Amino acid sequence: MIDILVKEIQKKDNPTVVGLDPRLNFVPTFIKEEAFEKFGKTPKGASEAFLMFNKGIIDAVSDLVPAVKPQVAMYEQYGAEGINAYIETIKYAKKKGLVIIGDIKRGDIATTAEAYSDGHIGKVDIEDEQCIVYDEDSITINPYLGYDSVEPYINNCKNFNRGLFILVKTSNPNSGEIQDLIVEGEALYKRVGRLVNKWGEELIGNSGYSQIGAVVGATHSSQAEELREIMPNNYFLVPGYGAQGATAKDLKVCFNKDGLGAIVNSSRGIIAAYKNAKYTELQFAEAAREAVIEMQKDLKSVL
Amino acid sequence: MIDILVKEIQKKDNPTVVGLDPRLNFVPTFIKEEAFEKFGKTPKGASEAFLMFNKGIIDAVSDLVPAVKPQVAMYEQYGAEGINAYIETIKYAKKKGLVIIGDIKRGDIATTAEAYSDGHIGKVDIEDEQCIVYDEDSITINPYLGYDSVEPYINNCKNFNRGLFILVKTSNPNSGEIQDLIVEGEALYKRVGRLVNKWGEELIGNSGYSQIGAVVGATHSSQAEELREIMPNNYFLVPGYGAQGATAKDLKVCFNKDGLGAIVNSSRGIIAAYKNAKYTELQFAEAAREAVIEMQKDLKSVL
């Protein structure tokens, strides 16, 4: 998976991932009206609106970016209908040649992690029928429970050529409350970074990068720099650009000298770009496309 | 929520929560056959089998236990159909008077956490229509991202009288890899325990316990004892009894002197009790009921 991602980043000359984190107030009125007319102001209506919106965004950016990152929470909040829209979004984006990073941040003990892992990046066995359910190419997971909670995902990464991005240093303001605590002379996020690096050793692809990557927030630049050094062959999934406040300059440190090693997420800044006064709602997809081109230029200016 | 849980524990004289973590090999053949005949060996068929199985278990134990804990991973692995079975299980258990602890272990940055929180323990707003989607009474969450990732859940606990159990010390073998690291002279799980205690201060109910509880594994007895001391008014959700190896003696330390303060989970030990040679598959519900009575006796012997 990591080799495909690296190839797509190089081919499109763009280390941008578009975060598909829709909210109803990001969705243009004409789309919502159509969805609510069919299904009412219900979870089903909202899910349909998300799916229509996502398809418009995907169509507008799929030739420009290597990957999309749907945030499952936005869909999960609407129950089964929402999960259906999440899965249909993934299907649609894959058809358009995009790599899927499912932002699910799961973390549970081994026997339970197996169920998450099989559902999302493996196959579920139903009395010897093998079913692919979510079909993400890679997912984010939480390391707080330790290696036995991560192993079931690593097994599926091996068996099905999938990838992981494990939370190391998140982009939110309070991330330091636990992640920055000093353990044996260094911050916890560094310790976790070393563990992730070790866990990924067996899964290094032809690109020189491991299928096991890390989530490293762009909002904490000096910490990202330390992690880059500790984890030279782990790809970073970098949230925090744009709406969360980080600039291209801040996140330059997330990249290696080869110009690779990081993929930068933007959600609101792209999918809600049409909120800028120069666009109308009907131009939501065009605005997203222009925002991607702008972001690509911005990132390239520091690389 | 915590006051209702405590009242139910006292009324039923039983601090047991039944973990509804079905797997296909726990479900009796006659149930699977019926479900697969209707829907095939598909995610829908498997989800239907889980729901039928859960209803049987719930009917058999609802007068004996205060709460059930469905593990969302088992359902989520089957996609939208699975999520539907999870929600229907919750609905059914609530009708039978049970408190629901949704074992979802979510953890994400604030704006995303809001979506999880509104979907699971609040209401989602769809253009001013307020919808209740999952309707758990309480859920488990992961603290690795810090307070701003927890706050959206605390807000809904206040607004909708819901509860949380935050992961502090989990029951799995590798839980110590991160949770036991020493930070500023004490283990990380103790630091997290102190944070959870602080976060819960505002939400202490008439029972003297906070709506914000903690997950503390029974498999680490001396650590649970330390946490009991640090967190006198936080309820413990205690996994690890039975199949994971902890005995009633091991988990005695999770309780306060008032005999309250902990609710002990058993999943396999109850829902798959019929696998014991003395039962047939048709007796799966009866076997679960007897396992609950056995467990209640066992717990009472140490309290």
Automatic annotation (TrEMBL), chains A, B:
It comes from the Bacteria. Gene3D superfamilies: Aldolase class I (3.20.20.70). It catalyses: orotidine 5'-phosphate + H(+) = UMP + CO2. Residues 15-282 form the Orotidine 5'-phosphate decarboxylase domain. One of its GO terms (biological process) is 'de novo' pyrimidine nucleobase biosynthetic process. Coiled coil: none annotated. Its EC number is 4.1.1.23. The active site is at residue 105. It is an enzyme of class 4 (lyase). Pathway: Pyrimidine metabolism; UMP biosynthesis via de novo pathway; UMP from orotate: step 2/2. One of its GO terms (molecular function) is orotidine-5'-phosphate decarboxylase activity. Keywords: Decarboxylase, Lyase, Pyrimidine biosynthesis. Belongs to the OMP decarboxylase family. Type 2 subfamily. This is Orotidine 5'-phosphate decarboxylase.
